[in-house]
Amino acid sequence: LDGGYVGVEYFGQKTLVNPVIVSPDAGGVYRAKKFREGIAKYVDKSDCALAMIVKQRRRAGEIARMDLVGRVDDCDCILVDDMIDTAGTLCAAAEELKLAGARRVFAYASHGLFSGPASDRIKKSCLSEVVVSNSIPLGAQARLNRKIA
User: Fold this and answer.
1) 55 assigned to active site
2) pLDDT tens series, the chain, 149 aa
C-alpha cells in the first residue's frame, strides 16, 4: 500500500523554500524520486532537488554513521519513507540534515507505527513536522505529539 500521493498533496500545499526530497536510506531512493515528481506539480521542478542518506551499520539496529549525498543548505527537506517504527533512523537522518544546513526538516511516511520510544524521539528531535497517512490508527502518545500529523 503506497500512500505517497497523500503526502505529495499535503506538502504541495505548504510554502517550501528550496525543497529537497530526501531518502533516509539507499533502498528508498525510488520512492523519494516518485515523491519529488509529484511535488514538481506544485513547485517549479528545477526548484525541487533530491538527496539521500547512506547508512553504515555496526550491526542490526545500530547505525555507525550517516553520510548525506546531495546539498541541503538553506533548504526545506522532506524525508520520505514507507514507514516509521521506532523513529531512530528518522531522527538521526533529520539531525544529519540540520547539521548540513537544512532550514527545516519534515518527514512523510505511508505507515506510522510509532513503536516504543518513537513519539518521544520525535518530540525531542529537530523535525518540524511528521506526517503519515491513516493506514494505521495513531496510538495515544502519537496523537498527543504536536509534531505528528
Assistant:
1) yes
2) 466 778 999 999 999 999 999 999 889 999 999 999 999 888 766 679 999 999 887 787 677 788 999 999 999 999 999 999 999 999 999 999 999 999 999 999 999 999 999 999 999 999 999 999 988 999 999 999 999 99
Does pTM top 0.90 for this prediction?
yes
Determine which one of 33, 55, 98, 123 is catalytic: 55
The set of cell numbers assigned to 117 is: 520510544
Q: Shortest CA distance to 32 belongs to which of 98, 109, 92, 93? A: 109
